[in-house]
């Protein structure tokens, strides 16, 4: 209805879909059997109305060069159709990706060395020589102790300093709703290089996709592995439970392995794996 109210905007932004399903330039008269379809053809193919193509091209090149990684952006345009207008950059985010854009080859690992495995991953990457793993056993987590657990993880993050670690726990990390997962702030897990979200009866890690917190993980090159046991994911709970706790807590475990952990994430194979080196 708004398009019909402004013929100039309609002329710039739309084409008309005829009865036999082909597009033609929009005219002043549109029959009842025809439909108006936004295509923005004239804006994309001509700089007469607004120089959109060179602006977006230059913006993407400059922003990708500044960010050092492929990006996506959100933007808005305000123009009058005579060549004058403004381009507004609303948001910039790094695309899911890693420095290791090459194919990640996941070797055969003996079962006894596998800590966890997932068949639902995003991104691509490889990490090794990670000596620490912070683990919240799902049975230790509840609404009553959710914030206490979050603060304990923040304390471990502070103690470890610049030492890298893997973070494993139930549900969504960084949620503001404790019933969905551990309500940590990003600053409380800033040294984690791998984030693992475990699916439980009450939590679903798939909720993290698309959140701002997840965007922070991608921007910081943190690998993300959701584990759905009901979909073929595996977790070596006996190994995690048997390891001594290096942190004084009944809720959170700090596991240290001198030989270290290796982490493989292959978006192509849709597989994530954490194992002992």
Characterise the protein shown here.
This protein is α+β, with helices and mostly antiparallel strands and 277 residues long. It has two domains: 2-94, no CATH class; 111-276. The protein is 22% helix and 31% strand. The protein has seven helices and 13 strands. It has an eight-stranded mixed beta sheet with strand order 10-9-8-7-12-13-6-11. It has a three-stranded antiparallel beta sheet with strand order 2-1-3. A hairpin with a 5-residue loop joins strand 4 and strand 5. It is elongated. Residues 1-5 have low confidence and may be disordered.
Span between termini: 63 Å
Radius of gyration computed on alpha carbons = 25 Å
Number of domains: 2
Strand content: 25-35%
How much is the average pLDDT? 84
Q: What class do helices, strands and sheet pairing give?
A: alpha+beta
| Gross geometry | elongated
How many beta strands in the DSSP annotation? Answer: 13
User: Unreliable segments (pLDDT under 50, ≥5 consecutive)?
Assistant: 1-5
As a percent range, the share of helical residues equals 10-25%
The main pleated sheet reads as: 8 strands, mixed
SSE order: HHEEEHHEEEEHEEHEEHEE
In the sheet with the most strands, the strands line up as 10-9-8-7-12-13-6-11
In DSSP terms, counting alpha (H) and pi (I) runs of 4 or more, how many helices?
A: 7
